[in-house]
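Q: Convert this sequence to structure tokens.
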Amino acid sequence: MTQAIPSRALERLILEIKSEVRQTASYTGRESLKPEVYEAMMQVSREDFVRDEDRELAWGNYPLSIGQGQTISQPYIVALMTDMLEVDSDSVVLEIGAGSGYQAAVLSRMVKQVISIEIIPQLAQQAQQFLHNLGYKNITVKCGNGRLGWLQQAPYDAIIVTAASEDIPPELIRQLKPGGRLVIPLGGQWLAQQLMEISKDEEGNITEKAVLPVSFVPLTGSNRNPDDR
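A:
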């Protein structure tokens, strides 16, 4: 079971996130985030999703390594990306890059269902175990190539990608519902990256909006399905 969230550390973290939201408002156009986002952040203990040796650092507003060359994102970025998705309690969300499961856990407090895909088998198994042990019932973790999405449950109300891609995977656009949003960092590992908000209107037209300069680990996998001939 999850441990009690340390109130002082949590209050300090939320204040830091709110401060950074204000500081980056000239980029994001957001002076504040929705109350539901902060409520979700307050309900999830980040300590449960970091390595044992990093538990004392879990409440810092910065990314941490989770092994396998991957990181758990900075809480401010988790909150911002969650806010950008514009989800509600009826939403079904696809997450690309489960990592340790933290972003999915936050989202699960706001939506109907989260389907999370992780390409690294060890991390997929670990995230699934973490979330199961903590009692999350509306998150499904799959091991696979996130660039291809998960067609069986498509279309999705929103899609979030937690690693940087040099392009927008076409299959993710196809699996996004009309009226839905895709939030994805675009750019190479050693190049400038931008957190992007991709909107799909009712006619299927795509609008792209750059929101914030960011730095993410690269999204791996191929846009080509090996079963395609």
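Residues 7-214 form a domain with the Rossmann fold fold (CATH 3.40.50.150).
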